[in-house]
């Protein structure tokens, strides 16, 4: 699927609904863009019990991330053939360099372009007539109204309803899981939405490059707008990329960490997405993701699996009903050292790429 915005969703409504040949890139200075301002009224009625106590699980023992000597910032690659884009000197990836930038793959003979807000690295980028029908959940988050609402009440509405801990606590847990790879590498904030966590990663100084990645053009525009509004924001260490979570535009074994906040359930094929994440992670790289889970008392609901299957068919959203699903998913995609944190219905998981 296309990368979709990380959102926790209602269980029975549409979810709240992401060796090589030479390539060349060219970067130019950028201009600024004023963010879209739109209003939208949304009402979500969800009733789910949430525990107030959190059970924290420490990450596995520290793992040394293997680096092949290439720049941790020179990670962009053609989403078709996965050959990395190369350039003479520092490619200078940043928010400011996106506008007017171009990335040429000499293998596929295709050029990708950046606009004022982000770099479009989807496989269908540049197509004039061709278009694809995406799941309802994906298209929902591509709309300007939902994108505008996301950090203006949408996400906050789930804090008390299904036990969403809130961004500050989630960020602390995420940093705890990322300890083995902290210290100047790169991180992909997959299905970043309007950049709620991407901006935190950038301001934390924990990584030399933060890639805010989403399939929704309007979410990336919102992210850009928030960055421009914030005084003294470190724009030099963050880039915004439009891409498909099941076709990540990064070189194999080039990424130190991938974070997907409240997004796992939004991916039409979590296994395809996690397999791609496993591909791009360096040996020892860390994957951290969060979502919701309907277990415990919800397991008593008659025909729960049938209901979740229908939800998946209609909306494209995955509904998880047991913790074992997450560990199985990670292991099936080549990740090890699975661990988790629970907070009511909210669950944060982590696994690593074997060394």
Automatic annotation (TrEMBL):
A GO CC term attached to the entry: plastoglobule
Gene3D superfamilies to which the protein is assigned, alphabetical: Vaccinia Virus protein VP39
GO biological process: methylation
Cellular location(s): Plastid, Chloroplast, Plastoglobule
SUPFAM superfamilies membership: S-adenosyl-L-methionine-dependent methyltransferases (SSF53335)
Gene Ontology MF terms in the entry: S-adenosylmethionine-dependent methyltransferase activity
Signal peptide: none
Principal location: plastid
Pfam families in the record: Methyltransf_11 (PF08241)
Coiled coil: none
Alphabetical UniProt keywords: Chloroplast, Methyltransferase, Plastid, Transferase, Transit peptide
Superkingdom, taxonomy of origin: Eukaryota
InterPro entries: Methyltransf_11 (IPR013216), SAM-dependent_MTases_sf (IPR029063)
Residues in Methyltransferase type domain copies: 189-288
Family the entry assigns: Belongs to the methyltransferase superfamily.
Protein name according to UniProt: Methyltransferase type 11 domain-containing protein
Classification of source organism: Eukaryota, Viridiplantae, Streptophyta, Embryophyta, Tracheophyta
């Amino acid at each position: 699927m296309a990368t979709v915005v990380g959102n926790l969703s209602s269980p029975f409504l549409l979810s709240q609904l992401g060796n090589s040949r030479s390539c060349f890139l060219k970067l130019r200075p950028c201009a600024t863009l004023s963010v879209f301002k739109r209003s939208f009224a949304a009402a979500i009625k969800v009733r789910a019990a949430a525990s107030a106590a959190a059970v924290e699980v420490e990450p596995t023992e520290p793992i040394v991330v293997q680096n092949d000597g290439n720049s941790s910032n020179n990670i962009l690659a053609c989403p078709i053939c996965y050959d990395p884009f190369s350039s003479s000197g520092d490619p200078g990836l940043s928010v400011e360099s996106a506008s007017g930038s171009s990335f040429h793959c000499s293998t596929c003979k295709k050029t990708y372009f950046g606009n004022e807000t982000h770099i479009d690295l989807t496989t269908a980028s540049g197509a004039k007539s061709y278009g694809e029908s995406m799941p309802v959940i994906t298209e929902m988050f591509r709309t300007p109204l939902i994108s505008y609402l996301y950090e203006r009440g949408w996400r906050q509405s789930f804090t008390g309803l299904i036990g969403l801990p809130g961004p500050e606590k989630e960020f602390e847990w995420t940093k705890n899981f990322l300890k083995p790879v902290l210290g100047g590498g790169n991180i992909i904030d997959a299905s970043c939405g309007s950049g709620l966590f991407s901006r935190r990663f950038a301001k934390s100084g924990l990584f030399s490059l933060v890639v805010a990645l989403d399939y929704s053009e309007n979410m990336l525009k919102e992210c850009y707008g928030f960055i421009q509004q914030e005084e003294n924001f470190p724009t030099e260490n963050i880039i915004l990329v439009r891409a498909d979570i099941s076709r990540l535009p990064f070189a194999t074994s080039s990424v130190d960490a991938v974070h997907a906040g409240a997004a796992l359930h939004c991916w039409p094929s979590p296994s395809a997405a996690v397999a791609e994440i496993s591909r791009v992670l360096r040996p020892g790289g860390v994957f951290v993701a969060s979502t919701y889970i309907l277990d415990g008392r919800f397991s008593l609901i008659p025909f729960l699996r049938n209901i979740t299957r229908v939800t998946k068919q209609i909306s494209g959203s995955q509904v998880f009903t047991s913790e074992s699903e997450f560990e199985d998913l990670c292991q099936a995609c080549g990740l090890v050292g699975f661990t988790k944190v629970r907070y009511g219905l909210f669950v944060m998981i982590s696994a690593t790429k074997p060394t």
